[in-house]
Design a protein that fits this description.
119 residues, mainly beta
Length: 119
């Protein structure tokens, strides 16, 4: 079992930056692929980024060039640095974990943290 708790969401103006983080507990964190997803009102959940236990990274199209995912295994933490934010980045951002490759279903989810980009 893995428990995930996100933090760091908030309000930011367009063009600004924000960093969201996720703390994991309950299992061997370094073994897990960690992912970030987001869901905006009225839209389906969208893949943002993922990082494997060996630090391989994957990004969704909307995140490429603007977002950076990183992990700190010593702190059981994964973060998502978001730059050049746009109003369309407004969503609830979820941390997720799974064993294996970053594709496919994730087994564990956090409760989400709200990110709002608006002037």
């Amino acid at each position: 079992q893995v428990q995930l708790v996100e933090s760091g969401g908030g309000f930011v103006q367009p063009g600004g930056s924000l960093r969201v983080s996720c703390i994991a507990s309950g299992s061997i964190f370094s073994s897990y692929t960690m992912g970030w997803f987001r869901q905006a009102p009225g839209k389906e959940r969208e893949f943002v980024a993922a990082i494997t236990g060996s630090d391989g990274t994957w990004y969704g199209e909307t995140a490429k060039g603007r977002f950076t995912i990183a992990r700190d295994n010593a702190r059981n933490q994964v973060s998502l640095q978001m730059n050049s934010l746009k109003p369309e980045d407004t969503a609830v951002y979820y941390c997720a974990a799974k064993l294996g490759p970053p594709t496919g279903a994730y087994d564990y989810w956090g409760q989400g943290t709200q990110v709002t980009v608006s002037s």
